Amino acid sequence: MKRRLVLVRHGQSEWNLKNLFTGWKDPDLTERGVEEAKEAGRRLKAEGLSFDIAFTSKLIRAQRTNQLILAELGQRGLRTIEDQALNERDYGELTGLNKDDARKTWGDSRVLLWRRSYDVPPPGGESLKDTVARTLPYFVREILPHVLNGRTTLVTAHGNSLRALIMTLERLTPEELVQRELFTGAPIVYEINADSTVASMKDLAGPSTDEIQ
């Protein structure tokens, strides 16, 4: 039995382009983001992949990426489950701020700590640890059973919500996790063993160099 799980970070969003903290705000994809999503679909098609079920967040940038990928695969209308458990990390008071302006307000070291630490949240927001606590139980309860039952499963979400899943899949420490980069529109294909461990991983990363927020 093949047990395949594919994770894709959404294509570039309008706020990615403007260098803004996005979090739970809902900007759409840029033209480049649309093309990244389509390219993700083409890369998956070249791998001979199709899906039995898909999951995405409640935010349009992830939903559109999911739709564009499935369109490239000729799978429009595939059952897709949307849940806010897969939403991006909530950046609290940083949301909507230009990252350079945030550094001027709070200082480089403080903003770096909020962005790159595991358990220190920005004011009014979530730490990466908080995001893991929100996202991982949903994955174990709602997504993983499909994978273990042999359904090839697509998860289109966000840099930090996906890192919460990757932490478990790749057995990363908190220190390793905060350094784990995900490129926009770049699928990661996992083959999963019956005991939920990873048998193999293939990163179909494209040329994008957008950083995680």
UniProtKB/TrEMBL annotation:
<comment type="similarity">
    <text>Belongs to the phosphoglycerate mutase family. BPG-dependent PGAM subfamily.</text>
</comment>
<keyword id="KW-0312">Gluconeogenesis</keyword>
<feature type="binding site">
    <location>
        <begin position="159"/>
        <end position="160"/>
    </location>
    <ligand>
        <name>substrate</name>
    </ligand>
</feature>
<comment type="function">
    <text>Catalyzes the interconversion of 2-phosphoglycerate and 3-phosphoglycerate.</text>
</comment>
<comment type="subunit">
    <text>Homodimer.</text>
</comment>
<dbReference type="InterPro" id="IPR029033">
    <property type="entry name" value="His_PPase_superfam"/>
</dbReference>
<dbReference type="GO" id="GO:0006094">
    <property type="term" value="P:gluconeogenesis"/>
</dbReference>
<feature type="binding site">
    <location>
        <position position="61"/>
    </location>
    <ligand>
        <name>substrate</name>
    </ligand>
</feature>
<dbReference type="Pfam" id="PF00300">
    <property type="entry name" value="His_Phos_1"/>
</dbReference>
<keyword id="KW-0413">Isomerase</keyword>
<dbReference type="InterPro" id="IPR005952">
    <property type="entry name" value="Phosphogly_mut1"/>
</dbReference>
<feature type="site" description="Transition state stabilizer">
    <location>
        <position position="158"/>
    </location>
</feature>
<dbReference type="GO" id="GO:0004619">
    <property type="term" value="F:phosphoglycerate mutase activity"/>
</dbReference>
<feature type="binding site">
    <location>
        <begin position="115"/>
        <end position="116"/>
    </location>
    <ligand>
        <name>substrate</name>
    </ligand>
</feature>
<feature type="active site" description="Proton donor/acceptor">
    <location>
        <position position="88"/>
    </location>
</feature>
<feature type="binding site">
    <location>
        <position position="99"/>
    </location>
    <ligand>
        <name>substrate</name>
    </ligand>
</feature>
<dbReference type="GO" id="GO:0006096">
    <property type="term" value="P:glycolytic process"/>
</dbReference>
<feature type="binding site">
    <location>
        <begin position="88"/>
        <end position="91"/>
    </location>
    <ligand>
        <name>substrate</name>
    </ligand>
</feature>
<dbReference type="InterPro" id="IPR013078">
    <property type="entry name" value="His_Pase_superF_clade-1"/>
</dbReference>
<feature type="binding site">
    <location>
        <begin position="9"/>
        <end position="16"/>
    </location>
    <ligand>
        <name>substrate</name>
    </ligand>
</feature>
<feature type="active site" description="Tele-phosphohistidine intermediate">
    <location>
        <position position="10"/>
    </location>
</feature>
<comment type="pathway">
    <text>Carbohydrate degradation; glycolysis; pyruvate from D-glyceraldehyde 3-phosphate: step 3/5.</text>
</comment>
<protein>
    <recommendedName>
        <fullName>2,3-bisphosphoglycerate-dependent phosphoglycerate mutase</fullName>
        <ecNumber>5.4.2.11</ecNumber>
    </recommendedName>
</protein>
<keyword id="KW-0324">Glycolysis</keyword>
<feature type="binding site">
    <location>
        <begin position="22"/>
        <end position="23"/>
    </location>
    <ligand>
        <name>substrate</name>
    </ligand>
</feature>
<dbReference type="InterPro" id="IPR001345">
    <property type="entry name" value="PG/BPGM_mutase_AS"/>
</dbReference>
